[in-house]
Write a sequence for this structure.
């Protein structure tokens, strides 16, 4: 892995990383502040099963349910997946489109070490957002009056981090294979959203129930980390997917003609 | 392709005796490259960008970088995004030369440079060549090619149409003379039949005469006329090359 490329990637991404992290933290703090007044008033919503599944149970009556629905089910994964996907797409495909990659690779750096350094830089950014989310959750829960352990919050952050890494690795493979930023963004985001919907609705259709196992979202959310802590098997599956997609990226990138 | 950015469909290429595919890293260590459309991180300053590229080479001499920057009058302290094309190009030139490479591949190196910088760049090319360096320069500016090149290759529709010394290319190429005649309108009669002359054309008050090979028969023929001025259009190499394209074009 090329150290200069890694450092340059971090340098290019730190502001976007910080803003994404702050975006989560602000919402988590607001969510925490609103719980005492709103949570009890709303209680548990009676929603159709699929919809309530999409919203992480829609149980607004407990702080765990409130946080799971407000942050865990949609907003957290949305922000972290967006940061991972747009981050790697711009670093790899975006730089190829602008011609910077052609310049860098005219230097004595192998394609594999460049790709791995870019991937590592964006991975660090994703983990940083997850850590900021965790710290935000600790503060948000404290504002709401407490009730969820720091460990459980860390479990949610860990699931978020690996979900983000898997989404980013998917975008990495598409960026490495096509060299087109818009394609990498659109396809990876599309697959992530499709996974979200499949995980929510597939269980309602008996023949399609198995498709939820194909989604990153299932392994992110099914173990309910906020209530039960980390699900190591699910985290391992997300990690394995991220590693496998990274290997695929290296192979796709190795022999492809770059746009000069 | 020489630097491994795109793969050949067939054949092989060697630089410094090493295969471009198998020894890509070694070749890229020893080659300086300036892409035709030189892109950099717009928010970095020139100094930061060059520092990054130097790190990719495992470090290069700061003194050499400084000397090159002084030579071109490069602005290294402003973000690259704020620089003019010419000032960006200077940074590209520094990056290509800063590790004192044995071989340079330069695509349209003087694009956007002012004449003074072009001059110091060409002086640098001379020094590099005198040191034993090899420079592969692509250019649409034929006056530049004429000034710096020993051997010229002409590409036509992606194929090598011609490789020769500039000298030899000139020999076979068509030359042009612009002649002002003091005489009347039909004073050009007869010139078209002179050996070597390919075309006689009237352009305003002058005659434009194209000829091949020696100028001697033409000059002798002109001596019989009342000639008030003769100008060579030869420095317009572009015309020469265009002729080359036309002459050899359809056969290749």
């Amino acid at each position: 892995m090329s150290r200069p490329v890694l450092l340059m990637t971090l340098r290019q991404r730190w502001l976007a990383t910080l803003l994404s992290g702050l975006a989560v933290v602000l919402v988590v703090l607001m969510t925490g502040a609103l719980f005492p007044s709103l949570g009890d008033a709303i209680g548990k919503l009676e929603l159709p099963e699929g919809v309530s599944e999409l919203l992480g149970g829609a149980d607004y009556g407990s702080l765990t349910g409130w946080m799971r629905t407000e942050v865990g089910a949609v907003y957290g994964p949305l922000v972290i997946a967006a940061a991972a996907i747009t981050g790697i797409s711009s670093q790899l495909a975006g730089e190829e489109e602008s011609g910077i990659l052609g310049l860098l690779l005219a230097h004595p750096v192998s394609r594999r070490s460049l790709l791995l350094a870019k991937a590592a830089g964006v991975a660090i950014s994703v983990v940083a957002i997850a850590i900021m989310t965790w710290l935000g959750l600790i503060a948000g829960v404290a504002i709401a009056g407490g009730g969820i352990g720091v460990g459980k919050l860390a479990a949610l952050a860990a699931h978020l981090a690996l979900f983000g890494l898997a989404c980013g690795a998917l975008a990495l493979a598409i960026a490495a294979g096509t060299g087109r930023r818009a394609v990498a963004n659109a396809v990876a985001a599309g697959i992530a959203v499709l996974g979200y919907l499949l995980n929510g609705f597939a269980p309602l259709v008996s023949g399609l129930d198995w498709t939820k196992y194909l989604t990153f979202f299932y392994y992110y959310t099914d173990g309910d980390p906020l209530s039960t802590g980390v699900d190591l098997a699910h985290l391992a599956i997300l990690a394995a997917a991220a590693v496998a997609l990274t290997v695929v990226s290296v192979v796709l990138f190795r022999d492809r003609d770059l746009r000069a | 392709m020489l630097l491994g950015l795109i793969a050949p469909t067939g054949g092989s290429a060697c630089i410094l005796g090493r295969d471009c595919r198998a020894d890509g890293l070694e070749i890229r260590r020893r080659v300086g490259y300036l892409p035709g459309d030189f892109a950099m991180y717009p928010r970095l300053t020139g100094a930061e960008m060059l520092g990054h590229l130097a790190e990719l080479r495992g470090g290069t001499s700061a003194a050499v970088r400084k000397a090159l920057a002084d030579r071109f009058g490069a602005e290294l302290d402003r973000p690259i995004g704020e620089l003019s094309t010419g000032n960006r190009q200077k940074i590209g030139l520094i990056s290509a030369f800063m590790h004192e490479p044995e071989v340079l591949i330069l695509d349209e190196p003087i694009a956007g440079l002012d004449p003074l910088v072009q001059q110091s760049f060409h002086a640098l090319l001379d020094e590099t060549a005198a040191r034993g360096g090899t420079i592969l320069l692509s250019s649409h500016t034929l006056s530049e090619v004429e000034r710096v090149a020993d051997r010229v290759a002409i590409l036509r529709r992606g194929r090598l149409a011609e490789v020769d010394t500039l000298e030899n290319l000139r020999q076979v190429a068509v030359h042009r003379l612009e002649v002002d005649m003091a005489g009347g309108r039909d004073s050009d009669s007869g010139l078209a039949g002179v050996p070597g002359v390919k075309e006689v054309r009237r352009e305003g008050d002058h005659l434009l005469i194209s000829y091949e090979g020696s100028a001697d028969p033409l000059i002798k023929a002109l001596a019989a006329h009342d000639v008030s001025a003769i100008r060579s259009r030869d420095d317009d190499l572009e015309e020469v090359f265009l002729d080359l394209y036309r002459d050899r074009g359809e056969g290749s």
